[in-house]
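Table S2 (text version). Query chain:
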Amino acid sequence: MVEEKKEKKTSVSWVKIKPEDLKKLIVDLAKKGEAPAKIGLILRDKHGIPKTKLLGKKISEILREAGVEFMGQKEIMEGNVEKLKGHLVKNKHDHTASRSLAKKLWTVRRLAK
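Corresponding structure-token output:
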């Protein structure tokens, strides 16, 4: 018995933007260098769109369909790890930073799975 995943496509009555305009806005924000999570926050705070999932697709799916390159969460965390390693080379006694580095490495390993 295989369960089919049903896409819920409910629209909120007070959101007046059309799906095509929303996709264009997402692609424009991604071309400016924003990450998908940051795009979601911008849409919520500046444009009053509660969730892009109302279209039935995630932001990252919309960007893949448009062929736009974006940094995923793993790449962002790896960049943070590199910055922390450079900091620890200069500041060997910064124990708080070494703890933070260990936590970020745990997160990168978890995202790699």
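Notes on Table S2: Residues 73-90 form the longest helix (18 residues). The CA atoms of residues 81 and 102 lie 9 Å apart.
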